Amino acid sequence: MNQLMGGVMAVLGIYRAFPLVHGSQGCANYVKNTLAKHFKEPVEIATTGFYEISAIYGASDIIESSIKNILENRDPDLIVTMTTGLSEIIGEDIQRELKRISENIHKDNNGTYLVGVSTLSYRGTHIDGYNNTLKEIIKTITEKNKEKNKKLEGNSLKSDKINIIPGFVNPGDVKEIKNILRKMNIGYRLLTDITTLDRPLRLPKERFPKCEATVRDIEESPNSKSTLSFGMEGIDGAKYLETLGVPSYNLKFPIGIENTNNFIKTLSNISGQEIPESLWEDRGYAIDAIVDGNDVLRNKRVAIFGDPDKVIGLTNFAFEMGMEVVAVLSNTETPHFISEIKKISMENNGKITIFEGGDLYQLHNYIKKRPVDIIIGDYRGRYIANEERIPLLRVGFPVVDRHGYHRKPMLGYNGALRIAEDIINLLIESSEDYEGLSIFKNYY
Predict the structure, then answer these.
(1) How confident is the model at residue 358 (pLDDT cuts 50, 70, 90)?
(2) pTM of the predicted model as reported, rounded to 2 decimal places
(3) Alpha-carbon distance 223 to 199, whole Å?
């Protein structure tokens, strides 16, 4: 997935924010179509409608007219203009254009923030797009409130709230993070909340889908006690807030038991709150499910692909369940993916083949030569799964061929419980379908 996909996800996770794609209609439609299929919800994305004449003579006029249209018709709190490969190639300077447009339309603008982000589609992935876009949003909004933030530099004026950057996840994951925070009675500010894409069908239709992340939260984020982010998804926004005096904590995604333990311990240390009995209960249920399925899970060979930090979390969890991770793939290159997977492999006496910046063709060739019992990844893994007659656990983005997936958590103890049970059931079902698998002989 390209950077634009991640940029739009960051914007859609903020209440009364509107994404504007500076490119052709096809660029916006690709993102809109994929998100609508994954979340099964309507998605609104504006586009400047880039045509051939714009590529030759420039497109500053259509950026301005697009922003005026959005202000007049939707009156949002935030408009984020994102570039595409086409607008980048002709050398469009989105920051300079927005500065000029802000001066032109200041009389018509009722306090709406205008943010510009370079989300060129020929470099990076949706993970980079999410990270870069959120940083630009935080930077632009907090810089405009610089004077107010200076007064908060003294710790005595800071609140006890914790900024949470959930990353490029599903609504079910954000709900699970909120569930943990509420059980621990911790005040928080979500800086993106993608539950906007899982709303009940009620009339009248909401002008903007509701969520807990607002522009006001971002304005006040320098007033928080700390910021917590996962992997590289939002880490630059957290680091920027660190320059404003907000300490940041970067953790692994709370996938599986140990990573969730670390997340909850960190929350407890920052807030001073005790870990409540209800979370110990959730932990106990997840561990019980793993123990119950031990005879099915033990020593099963698994291949995992997807976003780098989710793959790291899932690799940790697979080893926790007694499985053998033999191959991992991520098409997003990061400074830490290979070293982290090697570390996990050494800790578990494993031998993992790593594909970074690769594609599913490489993983498929690997599996042809060294069969696995199950694949974990998004729906595109079904082509390997169907050909090789291997079960696929759908995890990550996108999952367009299943309903309700986006409501299921991957994070926290409840996410661990769900993933463990889904893997166990898939392995049992596969043993019924494919009698040649070793699990058939072991289980029955």
Answers:
(1) confident
(2) 0.91
(3) 30
| Six-digit token string for 407 | 């409501």
Which residue bears the tokens 């420039």?
A: 58
The answer to whether 172 touches 409, Cβ cutoff 8 Å, is: yes
Q: Is the peptide bond before 398 cis (omega within 30 degrees of 0)?
A: yes
Tell whether the model's pLDDT for residue 352 goes beyond 90.
yes
pLDDT tens readout for residues 93-127: 888 888 888 888 766 677 899 999 988 888 889 99
Question: Residue with structure tokens 């309700």?
Answer: 404
Calpha distance 291→285 (Å, rounded): 10
End-to-end CA, the chain: 42
Q: Can you give 225-246 as a three-state secondary structure string?
A: CEEEEECCECHHHHHHHHHCCC
HSE value, Cβ hemisphere, 13 Å, CA-based, for 9: 33
Task: Give the DSSP H or E segment for 145.
Answer: none
What single string gives the DSSP state of each residue in 125-185? -HHHHHHHHHHHHHHHHHHHTHHHHHTT-SGGG--S-EEEE--S--HHHHHHHHHHHHHTT
- Within 10 angstroms of residue 99's Cβ, the number of other Cβ atoms is 13
Q: In this structure, what are the phi and psi dihedrals at residue 96, rounded to the nearest 5 degrees?
A: -65, -40
CB atoms within 10 A of CB 192: 31
Q: How many Å apart are CA 8 and CA 30, to the nearest integer?
A: 12
Amino acid identity of residue 180, one-letter, is I
Tokens of 257: 């038991």
Phi-psi bin for 106: left (phi > 0), alpha (psi -120 to 50), beta?
A: alpha
Q: How many angstroms separate the Cα of 143 from the Cα of each of 137, 241, 372?
A: 10, 11, 51
Q: In angstroms, rounded to a whole number, what is the distance separating the alpha carbons of residues 378 and 406?
A: 12
Specify the pairing of strand 226-230 against strand 162-165.
parallel
Distance CA 7, CA 341 (A): 27
- In the chain, the amino acid numbered 40 is K
Please compute the mean of the pLDDT values over residues 1-16 and round it to a whole number.
93
CA–CA distance, 398 with 406 (Å, rounded to integer): 9
Q: In this predicted model, what pLDDT tens digit does every residue of 60-72 receive, in sequence order?
A: 788 888 999 999 9
**The two three-digit tokens of residue 79, written as one number:** 């408009």
Classify the C-alpha dihedral 262-265-269-273 as positive or negative: positive
Q: Give the C-alpha separation, 379 to 367, whole Å.
A: 17
d(CA 173, CA 194): 9
Q: Residue 315: name the closest of 289, 282, 352, 285 by CA.
A: 352
